[in-house]
Amino acid sequence: MPTVAYIAGYGLGPNEIVEALDKYKELGVETIFVIRGDKPRDDDFSAHPDSFSYASEMIAFIKERYDFTLGCAGYPEGHVEAESVDKDLKFLKLKVDNGAEYVVAQYFYDNAFFFDYVDKCRALGITVPIIPGVMPVYTIKMTNMLSKVCGSTITDELKSKIDAVDPEDKEAVLDMGIDFAVDQCKGLLKEGVPGLHFYTMDRSQSTAEIINRLKKDNLL
Fold it and tell me: N or C, fewer C-beta in 10 Å, the chain?
């Protein structure tokens, strides 16, 4: 089965990155998703003095040394640390120029965010595939927390659906999340997106149900 490995290199030195990538190579991995990652919450953490500050730098480093197909992250609503969406787009362009061959988008709850993002990327000369990220609602607490961490807007439409279910009724919340994600995926697929990336959070039930429903409608 084709597999994508990923590496989050925040604070790692070049030798540590090479060690990890060599192991991937030995396993026969051909595609690597490259992200900078977030600073560990460990107060004792100390970044390697030669670590990379940006994913674009890691991508260039890897591209010079390996023949992996490299992917990178994109942010339809802008990275939470970015000065602006336009500035963030310029960083994405740099990642692609340095060797990224596909983009996986951060999740969003309004497809208009994604399509507008793709239009801006194309206008900037970014031609690689851009894969939309889908994050079903698993729990209301998780959805609210991740929205703040990832900078993904909880739209009025989603909020109204969340407000209509009992947050303590786990099955009802999951069902609502699946229904919303199925509708979102249908809208994305009908516009010809190159694929779907599901943020499963180690919870396969929702993703499996979403895929089954899309298959029943002959969309996959």
Answer: N
pTM flag (> 0.90)? yes
CATH classification of the domain holding 99: 3.20.20.220
Tokens 């994050």 appear where?
135
Q: Encode pLDDT of 71-96 as tens digits.
A: 999 999 999 988 898 999 999 999 99
17 lies in which domain range? 4-216
The edge-to-edge listing of strands for the beta sheet with 130-134 is: 4-8, 31-35, 69-74, 100-107, 130-134, 197-198
Q: How far apart are CA 92 and CA 156, in angstroms?
A: 29
The single-letter DSSP state of residue 33 is: E
Given a cut of 80, is residue 167 above it in pLDDT? yes
Question: DSSP secondary structure string, 46-105?
Answer: ---TT--SSHHHHHHHHHHH---EEEEEE-TT--TT-S-HHHHHHHHHHHHHTTEEEEEE
Q: How many folded domains does the chain comprise?
A: 1
Q: How many separate helices (H) and strands (E) can be counted in the chain? A: 8, 6
pLDDT tens track for 20-52: 999 999 999 999 999 998 877 777 778 888 889
Give 3-state DSSP helix, strand, coil % of the chain, rounded to 5: 45, 15, 40
